[in-house]
Write a structure and sequence with these properties.
The protein is an alpha/beta fold and 249 residues long. The chain has 8 helices and 17 strands. Helix content is 36%, strand content 31%. Helix 4 packs antiparallel against helix 6.
């Protein structure tokens, strides 16, 4: 498995190489580049299976580089210093990323994930989506990428009715389309969607409050959503959820 590290800091490239050699035996060949132009040239000649790409470099950003690749065939992992907005965009775009300084366990998990996905989904479309996320700050237009075994779905957040925990998976119930099962747990999506107003009504349910039509008092209480869907409302959360909903009226 061939991997390319693109970063303008030699010490970062060296540290990543050492970690890869120590913790990722699947990576057999490692090459390096120090910027956008050298990275583009190296991708062309080396044809890596996986690219670890720095976000900010001397001759441009990792985003600038990806704009110049029409149909990348490799798996991509961004490497970045902490940037809340960029990280949020990575999460919504379902593109993997690592924070500097790179943690060995996180690196190992990212490499294993990339290897599993090596036959790959449409990275070009995800990159386009990521760049849109970074440039568009209108929350009502925000979208999220959902990936199952066979497909990538580009979903408007406003079309999500609710999310249901199913073990380590999350099932998304969407307006006017079939549900989508994703191999991430509900807590991860709670962290992403709660800032957009989604509420945890029950330990297994994360609900889009704009889709709630009414509160049904029968059988202990539940919430009725659009499409006549019913979700439970935990007794311990009842007062809090109802007060939130009343505040939205």
């Amino acid at each position: 498995m061939k991997l390319l590290v693109i970063d303008n800091e030699p010490n970062i490239r060296t540290a990543i190489r050492v970690l890869l050699q120590a913790f990722c035996p699947e990576i057999t060949v490692i090459e390096e580049a120090d910027g956008v132009q050298s990275g583009l040239q190296k991708i062309k000649t080396f044809q890596p299976d996986i690219v670890l790409l720095d976000v900010e470099m001397d001759d441009g950003s990792g985003f600038d580089m990806m704009k110049q690749l029409s149909h990348p065939s490799f798996q991509l992992i961004f490497v970045t210093a902490h940037n809340k907005y960029a990280i949020e965009a990575f999460q919504f775009s379902a593109i993997d990323y690592l924070l500097k300084p790179v943690d060995p366990d996180a690196l190992q998990k990212s490499i294993q994930k990339a290897i599993r996905n090596i036959q790959g989904k449409d990275l070009s479309r995800q990159i386009e989506f990521l760049l849109h996320q970074l440039s568009d700050k209108h929350e009502h237009e925000k979208r999220i990428v959902l990936k199952d075994i066979d497909n990538i779905y580009f979903v408007k957040v406003c079309d999500i009715l609710y999310c249901l925990a199913e073990g380590t998976y999350t099932k998304f119930f969407l307006q006017n389309r079939p549900p989508v099962m994703v191999s991430k747990n509900l807590k991860e999506y709670e962290n992403m969607l709660e800032p957009l107003g989604f509420i945890r009504t029950h330990h297994s349910y994360l609900v889009n409050p704009s889709k709630i039509i009414r509160f049904d008092k029968s059988d202990g209480g539940s919430l009725i959503l659009e499409d006549n869907l019913k979700v439970p409302l935990a007794q311990r959360k009842k007062e809090w959820v109802l007060s939130l909903l009343e505040g939205r009226v």
